[in-house]
Amino acid sequence: MKKTFICICALLMVLGIVSASFSADKFPSKPIQIICPVKAGGDTDRNTRALAQAMSKVLGVPVVVANVDGGATVIGMEQVLESDPDGYTLIINGTDIFVPKMMGTTDVSLTSFKTVGIPLIDNTTVLVVHKDSGYKDLKDLVEKSAAEPDTIEYGGKIGATNQICGIAMNREWKAGMRFVDVGNNAAKITALLGHQTNVINLSYSLALDYFKTGEFIALCLLGSEPNELIPDVKLASDYGLKNVDFSKFFWVGAHPDTPDEIIDILADAVAKASKDEAFLAYLKANFLTPTTMLKKDAETYATKFYEETMDIYKEEFLSAQ
After folding, report:
1. Do residues 77 and 108 touch, judged by C-beta distance below 8 A?
2. Which positions ≥6 away from 300 have C-beta within 8 Å?
3. For 146-158, how does the pLDDT look when each residue is reduced to its tens digit (9 = 90+)?
4. How many Å apart are CA 318 and CA 316, to the nearest integer?
5. Which of the residues 141, 169, 183, 302 could staple to 135 if both were Cys, CB 3.0 to 4.6 A apart?
6. What angle do CA 101, 103, 108 make, to 5 degrees?
7. What is the pLDDT of residues 48-103, one digit of tens each?
8. What is the C-alpha radius of gyration for the chain, rounded to an integer number of angstroms?
9. Burial code of 153-184, b = ≥16 C-beta within 10 A, e = fewer?
10. What is the average per-residue pLDDT within 227-236?
């Protein structure tokens, strides 16, 4: 009886291995869904849709995007964790993936998933003022904010990376800007247009029309190195100030129990998609940088970015909530 039980267990194990191998061999055999954990219309949504189109060409099945907004990206992430670990439901996120855990509202973060890869870097985050602001340049803004603390309002979304950016700018530049909660990117643009806030940060392409007309002025690039696609926008270091890096990466992950063989297929698809001509044209048009960081390399990069640009401001960020 005992010998029979052992044989049955061994057979089940073999069948399990064969089944897993078979499913990987046939993957993908139906549409793949990428959860975009923010509202439609912003840069994360646009980037996700461009990547989905490129991945669909590689994989030969539709790759569809579903916007699941809420909970500072947590609701979308939880939906992936509740899905089957079969590689058919993916998550895309960026630096905001770290914020909810940083705030203590959830345990879900990047390490809750298996990392597929990072296909692009957004080194286009700029500090923006209205043409009527009267600020000559970044140094002028910083000096005036320091001379009269809390009189210059920096508008953003509370509990997001742009709030951490405000803390970093004040600390590193000895500035005195006051953070005000005006909402997401669309709301920030509206607030600046209506003179309801003095300065905002956002990805350059989101306000391209306003930069072209001269209504908005990009005071500096919030990165650690120049972006050759927007050469006229200076770094903080060009003004003798420390560079504050709030560039963004866009990361793709899967359920933590997804078989490694399927992760390999998805990672290969991300790598090939990042070289797709249409995808590269989209990136260039939006001043974005293609990259091919996969699995462990991508996870290491994202974790290091968090430690060096976000975690160091955690205490001040939490005290401001």
Report:
1. yes
2. none
3. 999 999 999 999 9
4. 6
5. 141
6. 15
7. 999 999 999 999 999 999 999 999 999 999 999 999 999 999 999 999 999 999 99
8. 22
9. bbbbbebbbbbbbbbbbbeebebbbbbeebeb
10. 97
